[in-house]
Amino acid sequence: MAERPEDLNLPNAVITRIIKEALPEGVNISKEARSAISRAASVFVLYATSCANNFALKGKRKTLNAADVLSAMEEMEFQRFVTPLKESLEAYRRGQKGKKDATEQKRKDKEKKPDSEEQDKSREEEEEERMEEEEQHEEEEEEVEN
């Protein structure tokens, strides 16, 4: 676990970006207010994690999953966030699936490429053999004529 309470705080850059996105343009926030929001966010994350962990333990699991977090949100009486969280989770999963599919397609394309290169080489070799046979045949015909 963390040695100092400050170690549990979220990165200031992340907190600042979230605050800027949430506030209207031209509104500033003091350093103390940013620090307070950072601490509050950290406490919220720890509490939500603890509640989610309880659901995992009830299920005799050591790994927290999305369902545990959603159940924790309901238990913490943040029901109004459950639907947006589910939508965000679905969007994340679709994005991950898209990335996985793209990676899989690239892998398949790479596997196919050597095959097509091999086919090209085979075609070239066949063409060379044909040309050699034709040359040999022509030489034989010339010898027969002479």
UniProtKB/TrEMBL annotation:
The keyword Transferase does not apply. Pfam families: CBFD_NFYB_HMF. Residues 9-73 form the Transcription factor CBF/NF-Y/archaeal histone domain. This is DNA polymerase epsilon subunit 3. Component of the DNA polymerase epsilon complex consisting of four subunits: the catalytic subunit POLE and the accessory subunits POLE2, POLE3 and POLE4. Interaction with POLE4 is a prerequisite for further binding with POLE and POLE2. Heterodimer with CHRAC1; binds to DNA. Component of the CHRAC ISWI chromatin remodeling complex at least composed of SMARCA5/SNF2H, BAZ1A/ACF1, CHRAC1 and POLE3; the complex preferentially binds DNA through the CHRAC1-POLE3 heterodimer and possesses ATP-dependent nucleosome-remodeling activity. One of its GO terms (biological process) is heterochromatin formation. Its main location: nucleus. SUPFAM superfamilies: Histone-fold (SSF47113). It comes from Pleurodeles waltl. It is found in: Nucleus. Keywords: Acetylation, Coiled coil, DNA-binding, Nucleus, Phosphoprotein. The lineage of its organism: Eukaryota, Metazoa, Chordata, Craniata, Vertebrata. Gene3D superfamilies: Histone, subunit A (1.10.20.10). Residues 125-146 have a biased composition (Acidic residues). One of its GO terms (molecular function) is protein heterodimerization activity. Residues 89-124 have a biased composition (Basic and acidic residues). One of its GO terms (cellular component) is epsilon DNA polymerase complex. Residues 89-146 are annotated as: Disordered. Accessory component of the DNA polymerase epsilon complex. Participates in DNA repair and in chromosomal DNA replication. Forms a complex with CHRAC1 and binds naked DNA, which is then incorporated into chromatin, aided by the nucleosome-remodeling activity of ISWI/SNF2H and ACF1. Does not enhance nucleosome sliding activity of the ACF-5 ISWI chromatin remodeling complex.
